[in-house]
Design brief:
The protein is α+β, with helices and mostly antiparallel strands. The chain is about 30% helix and about 25% strand. It contains 5 helices and 11 strands.
Length: about 240
């Protein structure tokens, strides 16, 4: 399965799927109506502000360490900065989740349910329970287990980092490092940091213990080969 073909498995009764793509941003959105035009406007605006900030601060796009607070930065950038600081990583580790959250939180005003997926990072606001499958590349556990989510947990970010799938930078070897948090930006940054800590099965438990120290993070799952570890408010279900 390719890095995007998992999208063929995304479906939800009564929700309409549509795609919005602007340069590196590639969103699959499920909503109660086709909100392509509105979503495209939001993506363009958020990207414009982010690109302006990077033009003024080029090192923001490349640093692997937390970025100093900047009260003058655009709201999206401030969320990325805060998320990176909590997780101990660079702010761009939060970019996919931050954009999914920025778009999804605005589209919530137009759709009673909204799901925004951006390269494996998901923002959800639900009215009914849902299951998010864990895609872990060549692991025998890939798409064999999912996370059961309830409306009471949302709005929620469910973000996944991998050292074996996709183009995002990971310093670890986890097939999937998934984090749940109220902020998708935080979930994204924390998933990167969690994945960075896992290079062998013995790393899974210490990595999850580290994750448990982060404020506002609700839970996490790590898959490495045929090994799986979980912590926190995660309800695993077989698929």
């Amino acid at each position: 399965m390719s890095s995007r073909s998992y999208r063929t498995l995304m479906a939800r009764a009564a929700l309409i799927p549509f795609r919005v793509q602007v340069q590196q941003t590639d969103l699959l959105i499920l909503a109660t109506a086709d909100l392509t035009a509105q979503a495209l406007t939001l993506v363009l605006e958020e990207r414009r502000r982010l690109e302006w900030y990077i033009a003024c601060h080029p090192e923001f796009a490349t640093t692997l360490t937390p970025w100093p607070e900047d009260p003058l930065a655009p709201p999206l950038v401030q969320k990325m900065i805060r998320a990176g600081a909590v997780a101990g990583v660079g702010p761009m580790a939060a970019v996919a989740g931050a954009i999914a959250e920025a778009v999804g939180s605005q589209l919530q005003l137009l759709s009673r349910e909204i799901i925004v997926e951006n390269g494996g990072d998901i923002y959800l606001a639900l009215q009914e329970p849902a299951t998010v499958a864990l895609y872990a590349g060549h692991s025998p556990l890939s798409l064999k287990v999912g996370l059961r989510l309830t409306p009471e947990q949302t709005p929620l970010g469910v973000c996944t980092s991998s050292g074996t799938i996709g183009h995002s930078l990971s310093l670890g070897r986890a097939d999937a490092a998934c984090v749940l948090a109220p902020s998708a930006a935080l979930a994204d940054a924390a998933a990167t940091a969690l994945g960075n800590r896992v290079r062998r099965p013995a790393d899974i438990q210490p990595a999850l213990e580290w994750l448990a120290t982060l404020p506002e993070v609700l839970g996490g799952v790590v898959i490495l080969g045929d090994k799986l570890g979980a912590w926190g408010a995660v309800e695993l279900t077989p698929l």
